[in-house]
Structure formats: C-alpha cells, structure tokens
Amino acid sequence: MRSSRTALRRTAAHLAPATAALLLLTGGLTACSTGDDVDPTASATDPCAALAAYGTFADGTTVTIATAFTGTEAERFDASVEQFEECTGIDVVQHGSDDLESVLRQAVDAAATTPEATDDADVAGGKQKDAELPDLAVVPQPGLVGDLARAGMLVPVPDSVGANVELGWDRAWMDVGSVDGVLYAAPLMASVKSFIWYSPVAFAQAGYEVPTTWDELVALTARIAADNAADASEGGDGESTEDAEDGKAEEEGSGTDVVTPWCLGASDGDSTGWVVSDWLEEALLATDGVGAYDAWAGHVVALDDASAVDALDAVGSLLLTDGNVPGGGQQAVNTTVEEAGAQLLDGSCYMLHASSGYENLLPEGAEVVAADGVPGSGTATAAGTGASDSAAPEESASAQATASQTSATTGGVVSAFLVPGVVDDDAGAPVIVGGDFLVQLSAGAAAAGGDAEDGEGADPEAVEAVMTYLSSAEWAQARVDLGGVATANRGVDASRMSSDVARRATLLLQSRQSVIRFDASDSMPSTVGTDALWSALTQWTAGELDSKEALAQAEAAWPE
C-alpha cells in the first residue's frame, strides 16, 4: 500500500530538499512486491540453481527501485524479478511514477543549492527514521545520469555490474553511462526510436507501399492527404457534397472528419514535447546524415543552427500542413501519446512515429505483425494479453479491406517500418536509439553503509546482487520473453521474442554493423534536452513559435 500524496508531502517538508524530492517519488517506500512465477531461464527441476551465485538473504531484506514504469510495463518488470526474489529472499520493491524525470531534476537542483543534502542523513534536528530513500533508480536519459553523477548523487556501479555490461553490450552503451571515465549507469533495456507504425491492412486497402527514401515518405504523405481530401469533398460512400456539408457541423472540432496521413500525440504531462523532439532528431539524421546530427547533438553547433531549423521546418511541412494530423498542431499538443495510438488503430490516421517499445501503449488487443502483414510467427497481442503462435486476423488483409471514406480499415493489426533516410557510406541507414539505465543513488548508498541489522538502509550486498542480476543476460532474456521491449544485450536470443517489431529492433541493436545514434535530447544536459527543448517544441507545435524562435529559446537554456 502506498502512502497518500498529501501525507507524504507533509513528511517531505521536514527533509532536506533532495531527500524530500526522492521521498515524494517513492511514496514513502511502503509498498511490497510478491511473485512466484518460474524464471524461464532456470532449471525446470531446480529453478534456483541458475541464481545460486547471487546468494541468499534473511527474511525482510528489501531493495527499493524507482522507475518511470507504469501499467503493463511496471507489471512486466515486477514479473521479471519474481524468481530472483523467491530464490534469494530479497524483496525488490518497485515504485513506478510518471514524475520520475521531473523529480530527479528537482533533486539535482536541490543538491546544487544544498550540496550536503545528498550525503547528510541527519536533517532538521534529528535523523529521519520513518522514511527511507530508494536504493536504485532506472533513469530514462543518459543526460540526466550525467547531471545526477556531477551533483554527487550517484555511486559508481560495482565491478560485477561493469563486467556484465562489458560482456553483453557494445562499448557505446558503456560510454553513455559513464561520466569522466567512471561507469555510473548500466543499460537495462533499449529501443529503436526510428520506427513508423502503420497498419498493413490499411495500406493494402488504399494501395500504399512502404516508402524506402525520405522523398518517398514525403510523397506518400502528400498522396494520403490528397486522397482523403478528395474523399471528403465528394462526401464519401456515395454521399453527395451537399449532404456531406449538411453533416459538417457535427464533425467540426472533432479533428477526425477526414483520415490524415499522420497521428500525432505530443501531450505527456511534465514530459510533453518529447514526441516532437524525436521527430526533429529523426528529420535531421534522415536528411543531413550523421555528421550534422553529431554536431547538433554534441553542441558543436548551436541548437538553432540552420541545419536544425531546416529539419524542424521539414517536420512542420510533413506534420503540420492542414489535413496532415487530426485537428492540426493545436489538437496534437492536447492529444496524449496513447490517444494517438488509438487513432492509428481506429483508422483516423495512417502512420505514427514511435519507438519499438510503443506496443506497450497500443490499445488492448491490437495485433503486432510482421511488416508485410503476413500472419504467423512474430505476431503478438498488445497490452500484455499474450502472444499467439498463429494468431492473426481471421480474415486476410484483402478480405478485411472494405472501403471506408471516414476511416481506414486496420483490422486491429499494426506493424512498423524504419524511417527511411540517407545512407551513411556503405553501412546502411542510421537509426536513433534510446535506453533505460540502472543507477545506485548515493543517498541510498550512504544509508546502506550503516548496520543492516538496525533496519536502517538496505544490505549493500543485497543491493549489489540486485544490480548484478538486472544487468545480466539472464534478466534481459527473462524481460524480453515477457514482451514489449527490445535489448542490445548480445546474450539474448532474439528468436524467442513474440513481437516481430521487438525482434527486429533487438537484432538491429545487437548487430555490430548497425549505425546507431543515441537520442540527442536525452543526452543533453537535462535542463535543456528534456526541459527547455521540449517546452519550446510544444509551443512550436501549437503555432506560438516558428522553427528559429523555438530552437533559439532552447539554445538560450544551454549551461554556460
């Protein structure tokens, strides 16, 4: 059970600022976790044999971990550690919150104001005995990892964790988790962000083909808009133009009176705007290549450099031209990421740019199939409802393609293709990737340094055991087997994955031949990349700023 937010804020008011922010995030750490599922990688006769190296711990041993996971994603994380908990006796208590990023940024700011707050357990006249800090956190941006480390809020990962990362992951993943040559963050999961989700059924119905170049993507966008504008002007389905105009008043304001080329949902609470920053980065990489992308991401050139302004203008032409997204930019900033997925499934729009992990946010029952739309191996059902070995629509794509003038027929089936772009030398088109990183908070480590028998802080050996397990290929396999995520860990057998999109993403991430670039905004100082830039791009989407103004506003926030 989690403490109420109101009561928690009263408790936090007596703590040092950084401590209070993290306490708010964890809800007082009063939750508990349970589980008795068998780890699929363990022995059938002795499921704990494969986990013996992690040791066993006394009843009541608890390690707390703050994440940004909610809903199905949080449930799957809990399921991925159930066998570990049963075999080691460690209770891994997850506290998922959409506020993770903003709370951690607040903690960094508070630490800068009162640096002793991150190390001082004695506050406001005495030690706070009825509240604990999280031992670990899963941070979704390497830029935020850097900010936390420089604020003195992180502990370098144990040698066992570093060894796991070095064994399973490409060197690039170690580099983004390091600050000044010290590894502070271990990659857990990864995603390919350069995917465009679509319905093969809807494409087949309309006679559209997956584009293979950026110019083809632009042309397809224009064709879809023109086709559906023509349908709307004719009234559709045999309806006269006069009859269609009679019903126009009923449809105005809905933003869905015609089918649009793109779905766009930019609203995501404190993180609103990241969807548009992903689009900006995609356009820059796809049209100008890795050189221009690296210069912009590394701040070799200003954020409002002409290359970035041109890329954002290209995004505006693609998305914000009248009739290209439901309701235009004004509606997009009030449409959630999940609602955009529902629009894709109900046929309000044809395409949606999102990462390989987007299937976690699709409406329940949506089927993720191979890119060619052919049922069979690689078909998975969204929202954790299970995978199907032969599950596919009962009807073929052509049989389902019944004409409709007000929405595309999707059959509840989706897949994804990579954003087409320029080819970098002979290595193939580059893709943007992201990941979640495991860190140990120094406040938690300080508490763990006390006597575990006193009940103050976690057992440091238990904390290391959890970190070592979560950074292992065994955990990575257990997690991807549950669905909804990809990984770059080369110890994972991607053939076991039920989702074709997740499997393709994993194979791409594991390949040494892939040209990858980390999400630029995620790697920038968090006050810029995940704050000022997102805010400016939200204003741009709503029509309040032009491309140059938006990027100049973000540039002004870059630390001196």
Automatic annotation (TrEMBL):
Q: Where is the composition biased (Acidic residues)?
A: 234-245
* Signal peptide positions on this chain: 1-31
Keywords in alphabetical order, please: Signal
User: Which region ranges are annotated with the description Disordered?
Assistant: 229-262, 380-405
| Name under which the protein is recorded | Carbohydrate ABC transporter substrate-binding protein
Q: Which organism is it from?
A: Actinomyces ruminis
